[in-house]
Structure formats: C-alpha cells, structure tokens
Amino acid sequence: MKPANKRPTPSGQQVTNSTATTTASLSGADSVRGITKLLAAGTRLKRFGVRWRVAGKRKSEWYAAEKDRDKRYAALAAELARGALHLSISRQEIAEYRAIKSAFGAVAWRDVWNGYVAYLAHVVGQAPGFSLTVAQACEQYLKDQEERFAIGKLSSDTMRHKRTKIGRFSDAFGANQLSAVTSGEIAEWLEEALGLRNGMTFDSWRKHIAAMYSFFVRLKKVRDNPCSEIQTRANAIEYVNILTVRDTARLFSYALAHERVAIGRLALEAFAGMRFGSAARLDKEDINFTDKGILRPAFKLKTGKIDGRRHYIDGLPENFWEWIAQATPDTWTLTGSEWMHIKSDLFEAAGVRNPGNCLRHSFATYHLAAYKNPGLTATILCHSDQQRLWSNYKGNASSAFGAQYFSITPRSAAEIAEKDVVQPLPGRRDTSPTRDTGSPKDAPGL
Questions:
Q1: Closest Cα to residue 414, out of 249, 247, 264, 270?
Q2: Distance from first CA to last CA of the chain, Å, rounded?
Q3: Of the residues 229, 258, 281, which one is the last residue of a structural domain?
Q4: SS3 at position 24
Q5: Going residue by residue through the chain (446 aa), what tens digit of pLDDT does each one get?
C-alpha cells in the first residue's frame, strides 16, 4: 500500500489525504456537515482527529489532546460559516440527492416540506424550526438533573455519570434534531466510536441516554425513545470479570509482604464487596470491630441519597475481619486518588491482570457460590433486589471455589498463591498468561 502523502501545517500537525489508521467517527451524523471528529483506535500518541474534504480530496489532522482537536474543529466550522472554506460534496450526498429527486418525482420540494411541517405539528406538536437540537436538549436535561441533585434526589456519582455521558452524547450529535437521531446511530456510536465492548458499560451509557429521551417524551418534545429499540448487552457470563482464587491470593500475599497500606481498602472491595469509591471513602470509625459490622453512610454510597438513608452491613465473611485487622493507620488517610494509584501499581507488581472492578465482581460471584444465600449477598452489595445476582453472577464459579476464595487469610494467602489451581473464568474469550484454565472439578481441596 502506498503511504499517504503528508505535509506539515502551521500548527505542526500532519495533514493527510488518507489514513490507514483504524478510526471511528464521533459524530454519528455530523454536527457540522462535511466536518467530522475522529477517534483513533489503539494507543497511538495522537488519537484525536478531525476530517474534511476539499476539491474531492479527504484531509485530516491529528492531535494528542482532545481540546486541541475540538479547537481545530471549531475553527473549520467558523471558516465554513463565513464562506472561507468550500467543502466538496461527497458521493453519499450526491447519492442522497438523486434518491430524493427520484422519490419526489414531479412534486416541488416546497410542497413536500410543507407537508412534513404539517405532519410534525399534528403528530409531535411542534414545527421543525422550533424542535430541539441534541445540544439544546442535553443542556436542558442536565439543568433539570442538577436541580434534582441540589435537593438530594440524585447521588453525586449518578450526577457525575450523567454529566459525562450526556456531555459526550451532545458532543457527538449536538447539531442534529433530537427527534432525528435513530437507534441505529446511537448503537453504532456506543459500539464503534466509543468502543464499548463490555456489556455492562454499554448498558450504563444506554441507560443514561434513554433516561434523557424519556424526559423529553414526557414533555412531548419527541414522540419516541430511540433507545427502546437498542437491546441491552450484558448477560450472565459474557461480561463479568473476576479474579481466580489463586490470583486473589497472589494479590493479597504481595500486599501483605510489600504494600501493607493497601490491605485495608483491598479487603473492603474483595471480601466486603464494596465499590472502589465506597471503599475509598470509608473511615475506620465506620467499622464496628466489636460487633463485626460496617456502617455505610448514604453520602459514601453510590446508591445513597443525601436524605439520611444509610446501610448497616453485618454477616460478612470471617476472613474479611482477619484482613481488616491488618490495616495500617496510613490506610485510613489515603485519598481516593492515592488509593487508585496504589491499587493499580499493586496489581502490576503482583503480576495479576486487572480487568476493572474485578474485586467487587469476584466477591459477588464467590459469595453467591459459597453461601447459597442470594438475599445476604444482595444485602451486603446494597442491591435493592436479587435480579442482578441472577443475571450477572449466578453460575460463574463452583461452591468449591467459593469456599476457597473466602479461605484466603493472612496465614494462608502465600500457600494458596503457590497452588497450581485449574479454574475457568466467565466471559473471557482470550487466553492471557495469568489465566488459569480447566474445569472446576479439578480444584484441589484445602
């Protein structure tokens, strides 16, 4: 393949007539027609691009920072608006024009447009000139959600997710009419542009976009919610990432020997089932060592609201109390950022693959397998019901592995870490060096 010709621009970036890099459009239907934001796959330094077409030739520029790409995108849009930039008509646009002319036949386009306006006024209750753009809708929706957050109707974590996901949706589809974005465009954006392959993550993004559309359906600004046609992706085995018993033991054994400051918060996630954020915010005073329970204030819970609700959790596995007793005073002074970096470094130093949020998933999987008490497992996880347990965790591990998982203690961790245990993992199609393979029936007893 002949490499694309490149020439430097005043900004120091490279303009190319074509690129062999795998990329995805971030705009679904372009926010500014003819100018497209791009995101390159992989880990290349300059991942953020913008593409346009002049004199029949496709051009693109790439930047290391998203803000620099967006600045260039805005500059091109401004040039286009004042007539300084003349974009070529794409083949797709020519094909669309011909298809429209063929469909209209002898009917004047103004008559077709007037009929469309009358249809919208009758069915949706608004004329197209007054319909919301996605950018306007996102701004209005987030304003409403911020007001709900201010009076305690939403948690800080939920609001944070809304700002991120709705903001990205606005960036991608902002100039489009809210009612014009299709389910296929949204699904393609989630899967291809954002690269969401994990089903639970995909569903989380879909949920927030669907909630915004439902908001405007209630206000009769749009007729339908396109997200209702997008199937959820998560299922029982495909997307839940857990650690093997052996890898969990390796992680704790290494922490006990080399990074004792990590043990307390590590135990909260792995053996008390806490989310990263909840474990990072918990104070030593929230733990009742005498009665073996944990008080989880509402503001320290993802599901907690600022209305006084809190959870008191007891019935935790005995090995949790052995590990939490090993926590050093410095454990409780760690900030969330410090804990995040220590935890990441710990996985790498211990040689354990970290697929993300795996400690809480591991707890849910092994606790359900070991104790056969979904009500207790759901209570410890602060789930409102048992549906997620049955959907995501049931059957991911045998009861033998569940028992072994909760037998990991400061005394046994090193020994378990050295055992040649054969264990399959749910939802993993690849074979990584740290993965144990085989059948649960081969697991040795302790």
A1: 249
A2: 58
A3: 229
A4: strand
A5: 333 444 444 344 444 443 344 455 554 434 566 788 887 765 567 778 888 877 667 788 888 888 888 888 888 877 776 666 766 666 677 777 788 888 888 888 778 777 776 776 665 555 444 467 899 999 999 999 999 988 888 888 889 999 999 999 998 888 888 888 888 889 878 877 777 767 788 889 999 999 999 999 998 888 889 999 888 876 534 456 789 999 999 999 999 999 999 999 999 999 999 988 788 888 899 999 999 999 876 544 544 443 445 678 889 999 999 999 999 999 999 887 788 888 888 998 999 988 767 898 899 999 999 999 988 988 898 887 777 777 778 778 899 999 999 999 999 999 999 987 667 666 543 333 333 333 333 333 33
Answer whether residue 99 is part of any domain. Answer: no
CA distances for 307 relative to 85, 296, 304, angstroms: 54, 14, 8
Give the separation between CA 326 and CA 284, rounded to whole angstroms.
12
Q: How many domains does the chain divide into?
A: 3
The residue with tokens 């005394």 is 411
CATH classification at residue 362: 1.10.443
Residue 270 falls inside a structural domain:
yes
What is the rounded distance in angstroms from the CA atom of residue 403 to the CA atom of residue 397?
A: 10
Q: Strand 23-25 to strand 14-16: parallel, antiparallel, or no bridges (unpaired)?
A: unpaired
What are the residues whose beta carbons fall under 8 Å from the beta carbon of 189, sequence distance 6 or more? 26, 28, 169, 172, 173
Name the H helices within 82-133.
91-104, 109-123
Are 81 and 178 members of one domain? Answer: no
DSSP-derived letter for residue 193 is I
As a whole number of angstroms, the distance between CA 234 and CA 202 comes to: 8
Its pTM surpasses 0.85:
no
* Residue count of the chain: 446
Name the residue with tokens 């707890």.
363
Q: Are 307 and 298 in contact (CB under 8 A)?
A: yes
Q: Which domain holds residue 33?
A: 6-93
Same domain, 152 and 84: no
Alpha helices in 219-329 (DSSP H): 245-258, 263-270, 276-281, 318-324
